[in-house]
Amino acid sequence: xxxxxxxxxxxxxxxxxxxxxxxxxxxxxxxxxxxxxxxxxxxxxxxxxxxxxxxxxxxxxxxxxxxxxxxxxxxxxxxxxxxxxxxxxxxxxxxxxxxxxxxxxxxxxxxxxxxxxxxxxxxxxxxxxxxxxxxxxxxxxxxxxxxxxxxxxxxxxxxxxxxxxxxxxxxxxxxxxxxxxxxxxxxxxxxxxxxxxxxxxxxxxxxxxxxxxxxxxxxxxxxxxxxxxxxxxxxxxxxxxxxxxxxxxxxxxxxxxxxxxxxxxxxxxxxxxxxxxxxxxxxxxxxxxxxxxxxxxxxxxxxxxxxxxxxxxxxxxxxxxxxxxxxxxxxxxxxxxxxxxxxxxxxxxxxxxxxxxxxxxxxxxxxxxxxxxxxxxxxxxxxxxxxxxxxxxxxxxxxxxxxxxxxxxxxxxxxxxxxxxxxxxxxxxxxxxxxxxxxxxxxxxxxxxxxxxxxxxxxxxxxxxxxxxxxxxxxxxxxx
Length: 480
Fold this sequence. Notes:
The chain has 480 residues and is an alpha/beta fold. It contains 15 helices and 17 strands. 34% of the residues are buried.
């Protein structure tokens, strides 16, 4: 028989106390279990940044370098962007803004600019503006590569189909290869920057275009603004991928500095213009031909050599057709041959046709701003025909003209006997006294003709006598 009594002075039966302790333990275990489940659920729904991945860092923009990309994209544009990037990288809290208005450009220059943007240590924004501007073809690739993309009202972008296909049909194998490569290239840029990849591919394959409002709505660009200052206000708070880290831009109060292109950029832009490069090439050819036609005229040779080197340097950056170069060279050769060979104009006309046709196909591209003007080609062809005819004809006449100096210049000239003894004496010619000999006696003051010269001695004969001897040099008609 058990006796129920108080436990430790609590006043509760022992069995009841045990039950209370067991219940409390069960409640505690259940609470811990529920807590673990709840924490695990929260962890599963937490963003990746809260699970140990790097959070976006603050990037305070203090200096904004604005570079204007206006006109076709070419080697000068690449140098401009590289210089502007270097300036932005050296500035405290630097950022580069490319204010763009371009019809397109060369593929090599575009890829160089995109590579520079992808490797940039500072954020790069492309702003298509002002109103009425466009980022066509090459400009679309650059915009997609930039960390921030913005457009002003009434601007457009797109039409990024490769045009340097030599006029081939898109069904051609080489054309399909180029288009597929460009589509994959711009799609990769779109995925990198989190922009609409469908339009990017359509811009390449179908030459699709978008207005500014539609581009913002479709996620192609992030900002719609009227100027750079408004774009910077809208860009504040954007998170962009800069190198291996995500950064949050803070652009409030940033100073705007315009980038000056510099002499080298402007000079490169000038000489890589196809029309200027073509004219430099022709000036070089003219100068060298004139130097050969008139030896000793150093000026034409120096100008021609410098112009030719500058022209060849420019052609190194431009897509040229080898057949065009060969036709130009053939045309010049035929026109030169026309002066020396009596072809009744056949060689000259054929040379002019070859020169003109070669000029038209010299630059193998349809990119706006990188094709030769038809007016320049026609004018250059006519000028080349005229100049080569005049210069080379003058050169031929000079070669056939009687020498003005040396021994040959004295032959057949007239002199006057100053004094004479037997078969030798002195004569005067051009105000100079010369020792002379003859095969007969002569009288003082008698006019004589010079037959030859041996050192400082002249061989002369009485006028009229040598004309009866057909084998005598003086009896021959003077050259020219």
